[in-house]
Sequence to fold (68 residues):
Amino acid sequence: MAEGEGLQQHPCCGICMEPMAPTEAHLGGVGCEQAFCSACIAQAGHLKVESGGGTLRCPYASCDGALC
Ligand SMILES: [Zn+2]
Ligand SMILES: [Zn+2]
Fold:
C-alpha cells in the first residue's frame, strides 16, 4: 500500500479537517489511529468534562477507538 504515502506529511485533523504539521498532530487514544489538531483535542477535552467524564469516542463512525 504505497499510494497515499505522501499525504502522511500533512495529516488532516479528523474533526475540523484542517491540514496540520505532523508535529501539531495529536493522535487519538486507544484503538484510534486518526490525528487531531490541538484545538480540537482541547475542545474535546472540554466536552468530556462537561459530559461528566468517561471515554470520549473518536468522531469517525468507522472507528471504535477512544479519543484522548
Ligand atoms: Zn481540528
Ligand atoms: Zn479513531
Notes: The pocket of zinc ion (ligand 1) is lined by residues 13, 15-16, 18, 36-37, 39-40 (CB under 6 Å). Strands lie at 26-27, 35-36, 56-57, 66-67.
